[in-house]
Amino acid sequence: KSVNDAHGHHAGDVVLQRFAKRIHRSLRRADVFGRIGGEEFLLVLPSTTTNEALEIVERMRLVIDRSSEHRYAPAIRYTFSAGVAERRAGDTVALLYARADRALYAAKIGGRNRVECAA
């Protein structure tokens, strides 16, 4: 939203597309990645422990933290925050998503550009 406000919707679209491409390049075949609305994305990492997921997402965060779009003046720098949650026995998709979303919210209020794990 801040990119759209400062640079226009085309710039916001470019940032979202480049972000998605950067993330997509780091995925395994079984991983699922998609935009779920606005500036929020969902990443599903099958057969991955919580610690492995935290490492994967932190590596992605570092790649994005070093990213910027130089075709705009000034260059648009962007980061991302993430919430990680592991599927538990008996979880519905809604429960798993809610835990991940709470972790994402914790990352945002904790200073942004960080990864938090659901309790």
Structure commentary:
With 119 residues, the chain is of the alpha+beta class. It has helices at residues 2-7, 9-25, 50-65, 93-109, and strands spanning 32-37, 40-44, 68-69, 76-77, 82-84, 115-117. It contains four helices and six strands.
The average pLDDT value, as a whole number, equals: 90
Percentage of residues in DSSP E strands: 15-25%
For the largest sheet, list the strands in their spatial order: 1-2
> Any idea what the shape is?
globular
The counted number of beta strands is 6
Radius of gyration, Cα only, in angstroms? 15 Å
Separate helix tally: 4
What series of H and E elements makes up the topology? HHEEHEEEHE
Structure classification: alpha+beta
Unreliable stretches covering 5 or more consecutive residues: none
State the separation between the terminal residues, measured CA to CA: 29 Å
Sheet of most strands:
2 strands, antiparallel
Q: Which percent range fits the helix content? A: 40-55%
